[in-house]
Amino acid sequence: MRLQKVQDELKEKGWEYRYTEEAGLGSIDFEYRGISYHIWEFDENGLGAESNIRTAGRTEDFTGPDYEEQIVQLVKERQ
Questions:
Q1: Nearest 5°: CA angle at 43, between 48 and 57?
Q2: What is the number of other CB atoms lying within 10 angstroms of the CB of residue 59?
Q3: Per-residue pLDDT tens for 16-35?
Q4: CB neighbour list of residue 33: distance below 8 Å, 6 or more residues apart
Q5: Is the pTM here over 0.85, yes or no?
Q6: Nearest of 25, 19, 15 to residue 75 by alpha carbon
Q7: Cα-flanking dihedrals φ and ψ of residue 23, to 5°?
Q8: Domain coordinates in residue numbering, the chain
Q9: How far is it, in rounded angstroms, from Cα 24 to Cα 44?
Q10: What would the pLDDT profile of 36-79 be if each residue is shown by its tens digit?
Q11: Could you tell me if 62 and 72 are in contact, meaning their C-beta atoms sit under 8 angstroms apart?
């Protein structure tokens, strides 16, 4: 199971989400206030994730050893 920290945060908030895994990489889709968000892991010269969590209309890459923590922080900021 991948993106466990993100999944734990979504569970803590009580938000429904859909988790899938393909080729050892995780993907999470969820809605918040009617807006769809997604997080897709990738492995291109190191693990990272692409997400629209900061700005719903635009995706960005999160890289480095703390990419999941970066995303968790943004999920925590959502009220």
A1: 50
A2: 15
A3: 999 999 999 999 999 999 99
A4: none
A5: yes
A6: 15
A7: 55, 35
A8: 4-77
A9: 13
A10: 999 999 999 899 999 999 998 899 999 999 999 999 999 999 87
A11: no
